[in-house]
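Researcher: Structure for this, please.
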Amino acid sequence: MGSLALSRAEVLDQPAPSIAGEVARIAREDLAPLAAGIDDGSVYPAEVLRKFGAVGAWGSHVPHEDPADLRCAIQAMAAIGEVCGATAFMAWCQNTLVWYAANSTNLKLAKRFGDTFSTGRVLGGTGLSNPMKSFFGIEKLKLKGKKVEGGYIVRGALPWVSNLGPDHYFGTIFEREDEEGTVMFLADCSDPAIALTPCKPFLAMDGTGTYGVQFRDVFVPDELILADPAGPFVKKIRAGFILLQAGMALGVIRDCINIMDEVGSPLGHINRYLPQQPVHFRDLAAELEAETMVLARDPYNEDETYWRKVIALRLRAGEASVAAAHAAMLHCGARGYLRSHRAQRRLREAYFVAIVTPATKQLRKMLADY
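Model: Predicted structure, token format:
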């Protein structure tokens, strides 16, 4: 079966900057007041995520008549991340879910879920942390499945899956027990055989709808199979999976620059002795964004040199996020150490950018292996 080119919502025919601009407006007006609550876990911003979807944030990277282009999706995610890193992460989760459905050769699945995911009417995430580690020899697959009439029976547990709720979906992969192979599928969180267990409190971003997920002999019908076998499909979508994360990094870095600028007037006389200044991060952010935009135009490129560039960019983006947040804290001094100041939140969010799959250490392993 050939891949389905999903139709875009009417708003997606607008120029890409208008989508990012609308996302930025919603982020400033509706998301900013919720950022502290999302950080401490008292808020999951479902309605704001749906508002982003309504203006096209989750659909711009869906292949239409032309090849897929991730630039607008990354720009929109960066606008979200400039206000709240946790929500930028949920944006990445939603965008990857859309990416899976848009690239599936299961035409019935793509038709059923394509628009509902890309418009934000249905929310969800990605359960590929464990599979992405397994494909590079770090972990073994935690889900097992066997073929039955009309689908598969799947069992096992995933420790952390984000942007979930009782009516959400996410994509993940199981290893076949009855024969060699892996299968990628959509998990329906409303299935009574799927249990969502709240995680222990995190250092940050507790409002991201992150749960442990247990599969208790779940029947996965053929209609929910994204790819069988999973291997070739993962190779097709892997660059997009990683490149979309650049939006998180760019957003965090931009606001760290803003923070340094904000304290420039009261503290500039002493901050000038610090080795890293806002101008350095402006140059770095511009360089990272330019490189990201070039790679984001061609996410199906199968050349190994391209793949290595994607990995290297993602590594630099994570390291730059931590460096920018560290510098912002030093520029703020004691005021940034207050729980009420967003500088300390940015530092915690930046560490997440560096450790979310593929984490810094995995990216370095991947580069060493190629």
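Researcher: Any notable elements?
Model: Residues 1-12 have pLDDT under 50 and may be disordered. The chain has three domains: 10-123, 129-230, 232-369.
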